């Protein structure tokens, strides 16, 4: 996979939250313009959990190769959490036969590629929402080909530079911030998968804003890591 480091900066509509950051950007991060989220006021109608799609929103879709099947990330996360709770209860009750069956179900969910990619995407937004830089460093693939495009900023390539950009973001915002997702779709083929969604971001003292995001993941030694995040401001 080849990521170009020559993306053109995106001009965002002005708002109370789209002013450039005044903090000097570290010299190790070659940002063309300050990182910011462009904002436009609007009403929100989606669940506050970042991994959820509301039923009235566009359905979550999962595609692998040329086949399609309905797959909601909310159901995936809820099922996994419920199974983990049931497993703990079965072990406490020493019901080992039931515990074995639950482990089989959890293994099936874990091995399912689309489920795993959606779970990795949900983890990415959990880390983002909480400003968890250490978690970001673990979730991103440690490779030269990783790239990140923050809204209104040129593309950044390479693990160290991408982490430098997230360090700047984590220092600039007061966390936690609110991130809601709409129109989540996941596509997987082999060891590569990507998720598209609309981000609705709100931080303290700001208005609502929308970004269209594409998050790409690659499977390394059986584990899914994010290798590309591209968020672009949308005015729709």
From TrEMBL:
- Domain (SnoaL-like) spans 117-234
Q: This chain belongs to which protein, by name?
A: Uncharacterized protein
Chain ranges of the UVR domain: 81-111
Q: Which organism is it from?
A: Stephania yunnanensis
Query: In the record, which residues are listed under signal peptide?
Result: none
């Amino acid at each position: 996979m080849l990521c170009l480091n020559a993306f053109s900066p995106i001009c965002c509509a002005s708002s109370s939250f789209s002013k450039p950051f005044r903090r000097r950007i570290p010299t190790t991060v070659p940002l063309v313009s300050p990182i910011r989220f462009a904002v436009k006021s609007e009403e929100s109608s989606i669940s506050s959990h970042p991994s959820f799609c509301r039923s009235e929103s566009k359905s979550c879709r999962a595609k692998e190769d040329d086949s399609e099947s309905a797959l909601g990330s909310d159901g995936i996360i809820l099922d996994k959490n419920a199974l983990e709770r049931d497993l703990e209860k079965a072990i406490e009750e020493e019901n080992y036969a039931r515990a074995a069956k639950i482990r089989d179900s959890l293994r099936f969910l874990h091995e399912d590629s689309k489920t795993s990619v959606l779970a990795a995407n949900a983890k990415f937004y959990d880390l983002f929402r909480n400003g968890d830089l250490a978690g970001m460093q673990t979730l991103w693939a440690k490779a030269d080909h990783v790239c990140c495009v923050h809204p209104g900023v040129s593309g950044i390539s390479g693990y160290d530079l991408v982490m430098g950009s997230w360090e700047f973001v984590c220092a600039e915002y007061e966390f936690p911030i609110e991130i809601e997702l709409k129109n989540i779709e996941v596509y997987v083929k082999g060891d590569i998968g990507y998720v598209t969604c609309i981000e609705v971001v709100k931080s303290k003292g700001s208005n609502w804003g929308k970004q269209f995001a594409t998050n790409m993941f690659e499977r390394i030694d059986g584990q899914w890591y994010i290798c590309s995040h591209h968020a672009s401001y949308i005015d729709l």
